[in-house]
Specification:
Elements (H helix, E strand, L loop, with lengths): L1 E5 L8 E5 L9 E10 L2 H8 L15 E8 L11 E4 L10 E5 L3 E3 L6 H4 L3 H15 L6 E4 L5 H13 L2 E6 L2 H9 L4 E4 L5 H8 L5 E6 L2 H8 L3 E9 L11 H4 L4 E4 L7 H17 L6 E6 L3 H7 L8 E5 L2
Length: 320
Amino acid sequence: MKAIRVHQPGGPEKLKLEEVPDPTPGAGQVLIKVHAVGVNPVETYIRAGTYGWKVWPYTPGADSAGVVEAVGEGVKKVKPGERVYTAGTVTGAYAEKTVAPEARVFTLPEKISFQQGAALGVPYGTAHRALFHRARPIAGETILIHGASGGVGTAATQFARAFGLIVIGTGGTDPGRQLVRENGAHHVLDHRAPDYLDQLKTLTDDRGVDIILEMLANVNLAKDLTVLAKNGRVIVIGNRGTVEINPRETMGRDADIRGMTLMNATDEDLRGIHAAIVAGLEAGTLRPIIGKEMPLADASKAHVAVLEPGAYGKIVLIPQ
């Protein structure tokens, strides 16, 4: 089969399409014929050697969707022929076939495409964990979602609106902001506008927001702290550098800065997270947005595109 391989850390050019042996499932594992692969920013950091740990060479990727081809000993949750998506793999998702642990394989509802299924694992898992495990919202609170047009942002907007939060989303382009509106945000701001935080104060009658989901903390965190309400909390989902903050901004507000990573979720956490995701897909409150489809061979181009400003939905790779 064909798979993307990375033999040493470096830039996007290190992603090479190669012929490799078909994987086989061991006990408790599932072999999946991949129809679509989700591309996530974290995979670019791992490829560059700046985040996480890998045994080189390796095939990137955690998120895929496809059809079960075979199962290992002891697997009971799925069987060959079923449509599934993954939230973690053993052999890597950027491939025509992948092996995943049974605990990281979930049934894909019939009305959800494989491309949409590949957009679920990291983005929707991250959004759910950030919102419900870390922010712990109360219906009626106000939430600011920075970068609400990207993969995690669209998921978070849908979760927050369905939960009963007042949603303020930001986007950096006109198409992105339109997508945020279509996803149910009550208010949409241009985070490239110099006065967008003043608009935020107006929208909340100077009270501030209860929750901020932050995708780029090195740019926004210091400013985030100035627009929090009392007992507000910032959930740091993404960051690409250092930032200087004034801790006094947290003091009078009794405010929290809470970090999170999906990697800390246990199998038990993931069962709950993906039960909620599947229920939302079936009910129609969750609608994965695909911004761009690219062939598997263009994985290097996808790694460039996923970090560009003006995010719009999810980038997926399609094995040929």
